Every structure is written in structure tokens, then in C-alpha cells.
TrEMBL record:
SUPFAM superfamilies: 4Fe-4S ferredoxins (SSF54862). GO terms for molecular function: 3 iron, 4 sulfur cluster binding; metal ion binding. Keywords: 3Fe-4S, Electron transport, Iron, Iron-sulfur, Metal-binding, Transport. InterPro entries: Fe-S_cluster_ET. It comes from Williamsia limnetica. It holds the Pfam family Fer4_15. Signal peptide: none annotated. Its cofactor is [3Fe-4S] cluster. This is Ferredoxin.
Amino acid sequence: MKIKADFDLCESNGVCVGMAPDVFDLDDDDYLVILESDVPEDRREEMRQVVGSCPKSALSIED
């Protein structure tokens, strides 16, 4: 399972960072960085919640 971001939509609100700081971060310029794009299958439900919480719908899960 991979996490993807549409950086044209992302406003770096940081909701995802707060929910999964081991997967997402903001760099020094406040741009989203995906630290772990390959997320273990046992975290699927957690990642669905993170993706669903993105205020700009910039995140997605790819199988």
C-alpha cells in the first residue's frame, strides 16, 4: 500500500503530520514530505482515516 499526495492541492495544513508523524512531516519551508510512502498493510485503516481527514483531499492510497 502506498500513500500519495497531490502537491498541487496540498496546503501543508499538517493534519496528516499530527495524525501520523512517522509517515508525514513538513520541511523547513512548510511543504509536505512523505517520509514513508510504503505503509504496512496493517495500518490501512489508520491511513484511511488520515487520508479522509485531509482538508484539501490531497492524499490518497494506492494499492
